[in-house]
Amino acid sequence: MNGTTQALTIAGFDGGGGAGMQADLKTFQERFVFGTSVLTALPIQNTKGVTNVFDLPMDAIEEQLVSIKDDFRISAVKTGMLFTAEITALVAEFLRTADFGPLVVDPVMIAKSGHALLKDSAVQAVKEELLPLAYVVTPNVPEAEVLTGRTITTKEEMIKAGREIQQMGAKNVVVKGGHHLEGINSEDMLLLENGQVEWLFGKRIDTKNTHGTGCTFSACITAELAKGYSVFEAVTTAKAYIQAAIEDGLSVGNGNGPTNHWA
Ligand code: PLP
C-alpha cells in the first residue's frame, strides 16, 4: 500500500515494551501510521528500569538508515535515545539530506530509573547538530535546563528557556511541565515558530504507570505531522492522547507501567 502514511523512529530499545522504539512503533500504529525504525543502542530494561546499555557498531546504525531511505517514503521522523555524540552526529548528517519530512527531536537524557540515555559529552552535539534540523523539539523541564543551563521553576522561565532553545535552531519548542513543576495541573508550553506561546493544560494524574510517557508523546506528534496536520494540531492531539494514555496506564511488571498502549 504505497499510499499509506509512513513514519520513522530513530531510537533506543526497550524489550519491556514501554518506552523507546517499542513505544514509538505502538504509538504510530495507534495513530494509523505505518512505523519503521532504526535502532541506536541496546539498553537492557524492563518496567523496573535500565540495568545496562550495549553499543551498536556505527556501521550498523548507518546501514539501517540507508536501508530505510532505500525503500520507504517517510513523511515524518523522530529521534529518541541517541546515547553518544558520535551517534548524534551521524544521525544529524544523514537527516540533513534524507528528505524524511519534519523532524521531531525528543532530547532524551536520563531514564526515570536514573540510567543515562545520552552521555553528557553528547549534549553539545544535540544542540549544535540536531536542533538546527528540528521542526519540533520536546524537552521536559530537566532536559530544557540542561540544554539552556537555566534553572526553571516558573512558567516565565519555561518560556525563556523555550526561546533560547529556539535560538539554537529548533523551529517549534514544547517544554513539558509534566510532573516536574508544582501545581494541580500539568502544563506544557508550546512556543511556535512565529514566537507565539500556547499553553497546553492537562490534569495531573497520580499514577506510577508513566514509563515511556515522553516517547509516546513525541511519537504521537510525529504521527500527526506525518499525516499532514499542523504543529499546533499535532501537539494538542498528542497532549490529549498522552493524558488519556496515562489515565489508562497499564500495570504490567513490578515497576512503572507503560503509557504506550491504546488511549
Ligand atoms: N528507554 C529508552 C530507550 C528511551 O528512549 C526512553 C525515553 O525517554 C526511556 C527508556 C525512558 O523511560 P522512562 O519514561 O521510564 O523514563
From TrEMBL:
The catalytic activity, as recorded, is:
4-amino-5-hydroxymethyl-2-methylpyrimidine + ATP = 4-amino-2-methyl-5-(phosphooxymethyl)pyrimidine + ADP + H(+); 4-amino-2-methyl-5-(phosphooxymethyl)pyrimidine + ATP = 4-amino-2-methyl-5-(diphosphooxymethyl)pyrimidine + ADP
Q: Which principal EC class is assigned to this enzyme?
A: transferase
- Known pathway: Cofactor biosynthesis; thiamine diphosphate biosynthesis; 4-amino-2-methyl-5-diphosphomethylpyrimidine from 5-amino-1-(5-phospho-D-ribosyl)imidazole: step 2/3; Cofactor biosynthesis; thiamine diphosphate biosynthesis; 4-amino-2-methyl-5-diphosphomethylpyrimidine from 5-amino-1-(5-phospho-D-ribosyl)imidazole: step 3/3
One annotated GO biological process: thiamine biosynthetic process
For this protein, the Enzyme Commission number is: 2.7.1.49, 2.7.4.7
Report whether Coiled coil shows up as a keyword of the record.
no
- Residues in coiled coil: none
Q: Which GO terms describe its cellular component?
A: cytosol
One GO MF annotation is:
ATP binding
Q: Domain of life of the organism in this record?
A: Bacteria
Q: Which Pfam families match?
A: Phos_pyr_kin
Keywords attached to this Swiss-Prot or TrEMBL record, sorted alphabetically, are: ATP-binding, Kinase, Nucleotide-binding, Thiamine biosynthesis, Transferase
> From which residue to which does the signal peptide run?
none
Query: Taking every annotated instance into account, which residue ranges of this chain make up the domain Pyridoxamine kinase/Phosphomethylpyrimidine kinase?
Result: 14-260
Name the family: Belongs to the ThiD family.
UniProt name for this protein: Hydroxymethylpyrimidine/phosphomethylpyrimidine kinase
Q: What species is this protein from?
A: Enterococcus phoeniculicola ATCC BAA-412
